[in-house]
Design goal:
It is built from 17 helices and eight strands. The protein is of the alpha/beta class. Helix 7 (211-233) crosses helix 14 (380-405).
């Protein structure tokens, strides 16, 4: 766990490489400024084009997976596992009653359900609200004073007290579907032991509040409804969300719990589980959340996410050979594209859009585009424009497809103008990256209770089915078992049986 800690933003080796890169860049700008800028633009263009292509592959595979999914009602195992629900709260007194009502609707045997409400030691208002609203048998755990003041630290305190075989997290504004725990318990019962995590879909109950919440909803429909589905289909490392993630508790303890110094703790945990030869899949159940309806709140939340992805990307690059060996080369490359490149491409997107607009404006008015062509020589100018226009258009179609697949037809017109939203994402990315080196562990709290619409429940369909054998496994997965088959062979047989059951 220590080598994955984000307590240090950069290791000494990374600092040395960074200093050398800055010196080389400075020298290049002094001696050959145009060539240096051109080289940097070429590298960014290739990275942007490649990551856009990979993202489109995941979205398309996710669309095919969702379209081919069978549906059947979930069935709780005969001997249900004990389930722990962790609920981290901080300055959330105003939403505690609605949260407790939502958790009370979870359809799981009460004697098998453990709810641990985690409240910071200096938050008496939330503690009092919890005391008034928690149900009999639930426990309120006070998080002791200490550093860092982050959600993952609170989750680790809860993990130390958890007694369930399975464990999940719900945030303050969450409204999970009542049968979500049943679906997760059945999935874990059917799936092999190396499937350590399941990510439920997240959606918003205040989607119609304003344009920002509508765009946010379109993004979540594509991200959780298609993108993560595609990642799971290829069995690549999954950047888990911060809520409605379900785990095998013993595996969580085995890998050391959450990284208390990382501000996107479950994204980092998904990468660490992959490095330990575990898989994460998706769960076809919905948790309804509150979309941030104010631009400032949304910027703070999004910049924290980008900062956490950057933290995780730097950790992935600390020991690339060892990490690639642990994950497998293909899965490691996937993790770099999905996680490490995300802050870079989001920041680069703003630069590319400004350059594109300047180019067309100057070209149409007879202005001088010599300088733009000098730093964007062919074929990189064509590649950059193609990636930006066609790539963004393809992702826009994915947004429309996700909205259409979920029959949220009123959002289609907002999906068609999503590029405006992506520019906001780029602005938030710049904020997050700049803050990485000034306040790397500062947790910018998202304000909740701003929605103007009540939470509503909607029905969902079936469990996800595993679609292909994992590419990379540790050596012990191939050790012969009592029946003469390896663990991997037995696991593949289990997955095939599970797929057959779902198609009946």
């Amino acid at each position: 766990m220590q080598e994955w800690s984000s307590k240090r933003t950069l290791t000494p080796a990374q600092r040395a490489v960074g200093v050398l890169a800055i010196l080389a860049l400075a020298a290049g700008l002094v001696r050959r400024p145009v060539a240096t800028v051109t080289l940097g633009v070429a590298a960014l263009t290739l990275l942007f084009a490649f990551t856009t292509l990979v993202r489109l592959v995941y979205l398309y595979r996710g669309y095919r997976t969702v379209r081919g999914r069978a549906s059947r009602p979930p069935q709780l195992p005969e001997d249900p596992p004990r389930y722990t629900v962790l609920v981290p709260l901080y300055h959330e007194a105003n939403v505690v009653p609605a949260l407790c009502d939502a958790l009370a609707r979870l359809d799981y045997p009460p004697d098998k359900l453990e709810v641990l409400v985690l409240v910071e030691h200096d938050d008496p208002e939330t503690h009092h609200a919890c005391t008034e609203s928690v149900r009999p048998g639930w426990r309120i755990i006070t998080i002791p004073e200490g550093q860092p003041r982050t959600k993952p630290r609170a989750l680790n305190v809860g993990l130390a007290s958890a007694t369930g075989e399975l464990l999940t997290i719900f945030d303050a504004e969450d409204r999970p579907e009542p049968d979500q725990l049943v679906k997760a318990a059945e999935a874990f019962h059917r799936l092999p032991a190396y499937v350590a995590g399941l990510q439920a879909r997240l959606d918003f109950y205040n989607q119609g509040q304003n344009p920002l919440t509508k765009w946010f909803t379109c993004e979540y429909l594509a991200h959780f409804g298609l993108y993560l589905q595609g990642i799971a289909a290829y069995r690549d490392p999954m950047p888990l969300g911060g809520t409605s993630t379900h785990f095998r508790t013993d595996v969580l303890r085995e890998v050391g719990g959450w990284n208390a110094w990382n501000v996107t703790e479950d994204c980092e945990l998904g990468m660490r589980l992959a490095a330990e030869a575990y898989d994460c899949l998706t769960l076809d159940s919905v948790t309804w959340e509150e979309a941030a309806p104010r631009l400032r709140t949304w910027i703070l939340q999004r910049s924290r996410w980008v900062k956490g992805f950057a933290q995780t990307g730097l950790v992935l690059l600390r020991h690339p050979i060892e990490t690639a060996r642990a994950m497998g080369p293909v899965r490691y490359a996937s993790s770099l594209v999905v996680v490490a490149s995300m802050p870079v491409t989001l920041c680069a997107q703003l630069v590319f859009w400004i350059t594109l607009c300047a180019y067309f404006l100057l070209h149409s008015t007879g202005g001088d585009v010599h300088y733009i062509k000098a730093v964007f020589p062919e074929p990189f100018l064509t590649l950059g424009l193609t990636s930006l226009l066609l790539g963004n258009f393809a992702i826009l179609l994915a947004f429309v497809s996700a909205v259409y697949e979920r029959r949220r037809y009123e959002l289609i017109k907002w999906a068609l103008v999503a590029p405006v939203y992506w520019l906001l994402m780029s602005i938030a990315a710049w904020k997050g990256v700049l803050q990485l080196f000034r306040r790397p562990h500062f947790w910018e709290k998202t304000a909740h209770g701003l929605a103007v619409e009540p939470a509503t429940a909607q029905a969902t369909v079936a469990l996800p089915r595993a679609v292909r054998q994992p590419v990379t496994r540790r050596a012990q997965l191939y050790a012969p078992s009592a029946n003469g088959n390896s663990r991997a062979e037995s696991a593949v047989a289990d997955l095939e049986d599970h797929a057959k059951d779902l198609t009946r």
